[in-house]
Amino acid sequence: MLSLDIALVPTLGLLIAIFFLARLKWPDMVVFSKKRDDIPIAPGGEPLIGHTRYILRNGPRRLEALYETFLKAGEVSRRTVFSYNQGPQDLILSFNVQDVEQIMRDPYTWVKGTTANAATRQFFGDGIFVSDGDEWKVARKTASNIFNVKNFRDHFADDFITECDKLSAHLRTASRKGLVVDLQDLFLRCTLDSFARLAMGKDCGAIDQKFYTEGGRYKLPTVAFMNAFDNAGSHTVKRGINPFWEWTELFNGQKKIMDGYIKTMDDFAADVVREKRAKMAEASKAGRSVGELEVDLLDYFMKNKNEDGSELSTKQLRDIVMNFIIAGRDTTAQTLSWCFWRLAQHPEVYAKLREEAFRVLGRDGTSTYSDFKNLKYTNAVFNEVLRLHPNVPSSSKLATRDEILPGTKTRVAKGQRVFWSSYVMGRSTKIWGPDALEFRPERWLDKDGNLLRENQYKWPVFNAGPRICLGMNMATQEGVVFLSTLIRQFDFELVNEDDPAKWGVWHPDPEKREGRYQLAITLGMRGGLDFKVTELKL
Ligand code: HEM
């Protein structure tokens, strides 16, 4: 016994010495990370665990933390983190326009590399958002078919107008009854209905619900698909920031709950595919061309074949449809929400918007596709909101070979991930000038009031290069339709901003609050967006 104790003392001593030596060797990095003198370590790194704890601790203010990193460390820096299923990660953060351009121009060298990521796979499947290489190319080519001018002119604008009219009807009732509305919830319902129709020809009926009141609020009942979709999305994000999610979910029951959400989504998509297959079989029996049914995205994809000549499986079709709804629905609704949040703080911009809407569209009556193209100031507001509240606030790509980033001359090793952030770049004075933090839609217009085309790589809110967002024009069109239509009919008063549930970090001083955004795949508003609405007397 005594001899064992004697042996233990030096072993323990040695372990403690190793621990302290390791802390000295890796004072701000994950253990065994390589030292580099060419890039600074971002603030927040700790001995042996690098930024692992920093990222978890700053979750509710993650974008402010990223901006601070940029202010303190400059255009390029490193974060090292430990993830139990991916091991130690040595990440590069670059906020340099040339670096970002190099990455975005070549989607074959710089890949997403996320298909193997278990945290996101359950929600995204293998759809366009997470695919790479030839699989992505085929998905992109097929999907591009629906984004043509004819569809925009003949179909999308009318669809958005109809949806917006339904929203206006809700707002009128809320206004007459003096109830508070969560505008973000209403936008999300409209865009879910439009994008489900566009993606698979199926209406979810989310905006068609009958209202009820609760504590002075105007509410609509939840729709099963919407509930599952929203919860699965935010759950996926939680997985993304918890490196131990597979373990914790074993104990906290979350896995079962998530499986339930995914099942609701899968069943919904499977029913739609089944109905479509039946319709197609019927059409071909009756000798009608399948092309006659070609109205939504699913119809295009169902005509495609796999390389071996087999038809696309229900799972493949499910992934395609869900990726489209993910891509289009939340992004557009959330950007509209940020628009109204910003407008509430800038009545002078609101007044200009209304003046343009009255001038171009008239005081009442319906508007057409060509009218909306003339709403240049409205378009500028939409762009400016996206500059400060980009819906995909940060992104990353994995290098498939050793590379050098041209702007900052940073060496990137094969297999290393580089992050950039539209949120940070949108606030960079180097990119946008000294008034970068100001909300100023005029920066998007020339002296004659025409829209300026910005360099895509300086403003990568829609991505840029070969993988630029396919729905960029569609989202802008929908945004312009909603903004101009609503602004002609209502005054909006922002309320309940003092509610701590709306902030990641709450403070009695409004200037010191942070994280107004929620933890989601894209940049939504935490705790919703409450307004009192007053109908205009025209
Ligand atoms: C304000 C609204 C929107 C914003 C800010 C936005 C932004 C983006 C961004 C940043 C990406 C790149 C994501 C990444 O690779 O990490 C992207 C991709 C994509 N977006 Fe959008 N998007 C919006 C609306 C839409 C709409 C309405 C659709 C159409 C339904 C759409 C369809 C797509 C598709 C299909 C991709 C994948 C493109 C590819 O990988 O080749 N987006 N979008």
Report on this structure.
This protein has 538 residues and is an alpha+beta fold. The chain has a domain at 143-388 and 466-535: Orthogonal Bundle (Cytochrome p450). Helix content is 51%, strand content 10%. It has 19 helices and twelve strands. It has helices at 2-25, 52-57, 62-73, 97-105, 118-124, 133-144, 149-177, 183-200, 224-241, 245-252, 254-285, 297-303, 314-345, 347-361, 369-373, 376-388, 422-425, 429-432, 472-489; strands at residues 76-83, 87-94, 110-111, 180-182, 212-214, 217-219, 395-399, 403-405, 410-412, 417-420, 490-494, 530-535. The chain has a five-stranded mixed β-sheet. Bound molecules: protoporphyrin IX containing FE (HEM). Protoporphyrin IX containing FE (HEM) binds next to helix 6, helix 13 and helix 19.
What is the strand and helix layout of this fold?
Elements: H1 2-25, H2 52-57, H3 62-73, E1 76-83, E2 87-94, H4 97-105, E3 110-111, H5 118-124, H6 133-144, H7 149-177, E4 180-182, H8 183-200, E5 212-214, E6 217-219, H9 224-241, H10 245-252, H11 254-285, H12 297-303, H13 314-345, H14 347-361, H15 369-373, H16 376-388, E7 395-399, E8 403-405, E9 410-412, E10 417-420, H17 422-425, H18 429-432, H19 472-489, E11 490-494, E12 530-535
Parallel strand pairs: 2-10, 4-6
Antiparallel strand pairs: 1-2, 3-7, 4-12, 5-6, 7-10, 8-9, 11-12
The chain binds protoporphyrin IX containing FE.
